């Protein structure tokens, strides 16, 4: 089976799995003062330091959570009551579906936030405000102009939060250079464990806790730490700190291979936001008049697993709200799927997808998949970067 749904979740890396299993062999609550507790606490703080190094932040400013969704809620609901939330139209639902109903910042046809509309919203109120714009979109891969967003927000005295989940392991991240106030992180999209997320905070920023109970995480997040998941996160950090740039280049080579192959199918295929800066591991593609559900079923039968968009929509197949916000043509709204890959993907996986596509485009000819794969292989230099798992 070929798995191309990494933006939903990735296969767990072997070193991550082993670190989690090792951590499960010993008891240990990081809040306990005995030997096992102290060992768990040391592991916790070691991993916090590694994560801080990866994202260029202070370890003391990182709060561990159970997920990126929880981190988003802590970031936005933890601000003083009465804070206005401005969120881009293509944010994850854990940002858009907040008790504090966000005001929406529109996006253009590539899914890029409309800076003029953002400035109008900022200028229209003197209410305390936080702007929430993700670094990169989970469905189309578009990278947002976050530096410009931050500059604009600061001009009006607003805070800036960014959901950086899809950027982890796929883009270089510097919390300090971005000038953010809050950044949410998750790790299972790039081979890390489910069950741990993090919120990075600007030094000196004060939040109210989202969960109450014990005094964990400087009293900002109650609940016993998930030490096995955090141990797995430590192994992931080791990998990304040492091999992250190589992996990003590998993913970019595969994107080039895939998209050149898709373009060989001709005008029937549309790559969404093709001209915008995008993640190196994501391709949102539409086939006019071939429903997304039909594509998913046929690709699954051919042994290729993909998705029609966000995996957080209860398994529904239908028009993407992200594409609707971009005003994508109606003919493509119901016929677009998301392809995403990562650490274990090979050139053979990409070619398997291209071969499977010939079943979706019967009018083009029986050998169209062979031609597309050949085109991708001929035009993409895979020798410069090894495509090893």
Describe the protein's architecture and organization.
This protein folds into 2 domains: 2-6 and 245-379, Aspartate Aminotransferase, domain 1, CATH 3.90.1150.10; 14-239, Type I PLP-dependent aspartate aminotransferase-like (Major domain) (Aspartate Aminotransferase, domain 2). It contains 14 helices and 12 strands. It has helices at 14-24, 35-55, 68-77, 93-96, 115-123, 146-155, 175-178, 216-219, 227-263, 292-301, 321-325, 330-333, 347-357, 368-379; strands spanning 2-3, 62-65, 84-88, 103-105, 129-132, 159-163, 182-186, 197-201, 269-271, 282-287, 304-305, 336-340. The model is unreliable at 363-389 (pLDDT under 50). The strands form 3 sheets. A 7-stranded mixed β-sheet has the order 2-8-7-6-5-3-4, with helices on both faces. It is an alpha/beta fold. Strand 6 (159-163), helix 7 (175-178) and strand 7 form a beta-alpha-beta unit. Helix 13 (347-357) packs antiparallel against helix 14 (368-379).
Structure, briefly:
Helices cover 39% and strands 13% of the residues. With 389 residues, it is an alpha/beta fold. It folds into 2 domains: 2-6 and 245-379, Aspartate Aminotransferase, domain 1, CATH 3.90.1150; 14-239, Aspartate Aminotransferase, domain 2 (3-Layer(aba) Sandwich), CATH 3.40.640.
């Amino acid at each position: 089976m070929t798995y191309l749904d990494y933006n939903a979740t990735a296969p767990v890396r072997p070193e991550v799995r082993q670190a989690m299993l090792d951590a499960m062999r010993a008891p240990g609550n990081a809040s306990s003062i005995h030997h096992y507790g102290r060992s768990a606490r040391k592991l916790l703080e070691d991993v916090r330091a590694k994560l801080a190094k990866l994202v260029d932040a202070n370890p003391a400013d990182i709060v561990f959570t159970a997920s990126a969704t929880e981190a988003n809620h802590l970031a936005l609901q933890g601000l003083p009551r009465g804070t206005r939330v401005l969120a881009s139209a293509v944010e994850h639902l854990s940002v858009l579906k907040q008790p504090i109903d966000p005001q929406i910042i529109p996006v253009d046809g590539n899914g890029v936030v409309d800076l003029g509309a953002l400035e109008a919203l900022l200028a229209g109120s003197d209410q305390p405000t936080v702007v929430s714009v993700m670094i990169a979109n989970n469905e189309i891969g578009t990278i947002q102009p976050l530096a410009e967003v931050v500059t604009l927000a600061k001009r009006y005295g607003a805070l800036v939060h960014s959901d950086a989940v899809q950027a982890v392991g796929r883009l270089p991240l510097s919390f300090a250079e971005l000038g953010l106030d809050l950044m949410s992180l998750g790790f299972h999209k790039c081979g890390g464990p489910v069950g741990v997320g993090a919120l990075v905070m600007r030094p000196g920023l004060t939040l109210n806790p989202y969960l109450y109970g014990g005094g964990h995480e400087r009293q900002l997040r109650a609940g016993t730490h998930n030490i096995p998941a955090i141990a797995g996160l430590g192994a992931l950090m080791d990998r990304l700190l040492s091999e992250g740039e190589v992996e990003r280049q590998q993913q970019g080579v595969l994107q080039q291979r895939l998209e050149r192959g898709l373009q060989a199918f001709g005008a029937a295929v549309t790559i969404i936001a093709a001209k915008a800066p995008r993640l190196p591991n994501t391709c949102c593609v539409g086939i006019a008049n071939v429903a997304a559900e039909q594509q998913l079923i046929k690709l699954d039968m051919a042994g290729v697993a993909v998705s029609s968009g966000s995996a957080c929509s209860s398994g529904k197949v239908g028009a993407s709200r992200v594409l609707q916000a971009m005003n994508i043509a109606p003919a493509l709204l119901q016929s677009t799927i998301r392809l995403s890959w990562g650490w274990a993907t090979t050139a053979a996986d990409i070619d398997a997808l291209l071969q499977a596509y010939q079943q979706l485009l019967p009018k083009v000819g029986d050998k169209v998949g062979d031609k597309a794969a050949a085109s991708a292989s001929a035009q993409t230099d895979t020798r410069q970067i090894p495509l090893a798992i």
